[in-house]
Amino acid sequence: MGIQSNVPIGNKTKVTIDHDNKGKVHKTLSGHTAFLQDNNPQSELQYVVLRTPDEYFAGLKEWNYKPNYISDLEGFEGMRLHYVDIGKPNAQRTILCLHGQKTWSYAFRKAIQYFINDNYRVIAFDLFGFGRSDKPTSDDFYSFDFHRRTALALMAHLELQDVKIAGFEWGGWLAMTLPMDASCTVSGLLLANTKLHTPDENVWSGFRVWRALHNAQSDPQIGAGLSHQDPNITTETQIAYDAPFPNFRYKAGVRKFPNLIPLTAGHEAAGISLRAADYLENEWQGKCALVANCDGVYGVDSMRHLRTRINGAAPVIKIAGTSALTFEYADQFMPQALEIIF
Q1: Residue-level pLDDT at 14
Q2: What is the pLDDT of residues 173-199, one digit of tens each?
Q3: How far apart are CA 256 and CA 269, in angstroms?
Q4: Phi-psi region of 116 (alpha: psi -120 to 50; beta: other; left: phi over 0)
Q5: How many Å apart are CA 238 and CA 232, to the nearest integer?
Q6: CB-based burial, 27-55: b 16+ in 10 Å, e otherwise
Q7: H helices of 168-269, where?
Q8: 164, CA 20 to 30 Å: which among 16, 32, 60, 288?
Q9: Which residues pair with 189 in a beta bridge?
Q10: Average pLDDT over residues 71-75
């Protein structure tokens, strides 16, 4: 039986959770009273949220971790967030993994064993709109602050202490904005092929054209697109990256992410990134490992520049290849990176 319910998310906003994606309306969800939809155009904003069926994740190569879910995350009540929790729950150190565009927590599968062997507890979660987490179907639902507040709320919910954050690509950008508001919690950063996006820096020369082409697609390719970037991606891995997105309705988060880059000072992410840049350069006291390959946008040059913006960051660890999926090549850098952030 399908379940659909409206729950408050922010001011004057309700979310309709479509559990079997067939639009059947019921009055309750997990004991919470639902607000049934009406047709009054003056009523609250309403959004439909999709939940990828479990069978899409069955039998994925190298990914047999038990899923964990939070449905009462503060500020996001009613939407379900997915994470895996691996290692000893009472470990003194924790790694929080933040995936990049198009991907999900699966992207860290080759790094997880390194973290475990180094006595870390590993929390790898999926941003809303990605992986096994719920997926609002409206592109307008997503903002950089929305994703950032999700990560901060998760750390608070799980009461994490002495956290090192691992992130790549735009997950690395997100990671860099967290320590300034969690300075007592975050003690290290492991960043791979990323930038701290501020409006005073160009992303790359063709970014606006690339983004326009991206925005023209209602159904962006996931696995095939990643395989095009990295020919070493196997068919099984491509299937795993496709798994969270049965069709275009599930891809609003993917479609919106490139538009979260702050190209102007008035963009909602600009102030967050500028504040993070100031904090990391002038107040950050943690450790920071940087990893880069030969990618022309987020590779060695980008990471060397990033090192100048983070107080005490170690020299860049250089690895082979050009893949945006840096953690697919964990064997090349994890031992050295863990020594830096220990």
Answers
A1: 55
A2: 999 999 999 988 999 999 999 999 999
A3: 13
A4: alpha
A5: 10
A6: eebeeeebbebeeeeeebeebbbbbbeee
A7: 169-176, 207-215, 223-229, 235-242, 252-256
A8: 60
A9: 165, 288
A10: 96
Q: Token match 């943690």: residue?
A: 286
| Contact call for residues 198 and 177 (beta carbons, < 8 A) | no
Radius of gyration of the chain (CA): 19
Cβ atoms within 10 Å, residue 219: 13
CA separation for the pair 260, 169 (Å, rounded)? 13
Distance CA 123, CA 151 (A): 11
Domain 53-341 architecture: 3-Layer(aba) Sandwich (3.40)
Count of positions (residues) in the chain: 342
CA distance 25 to 237: 36
Query: What CA–CA distance (Å, rounded) separates 331 from 49?
Result: 37
Q: What pLDDT band is residue 264 in, cutting at 50, 70 and 90?
A: very high
Q: Which of 163, 70, 155 is nearest to 121 (CA)?
A: 163
Helices (H), 142-289: 144-157, 169-176, 207-215, 223-229, 235-242, 252-256, 270-282
Supply the pLDDT for residue 44. 53
- Residue with tokens 């609002």, as numbered in its chain: 136
Sole residue written with tokens 């973290």: 115
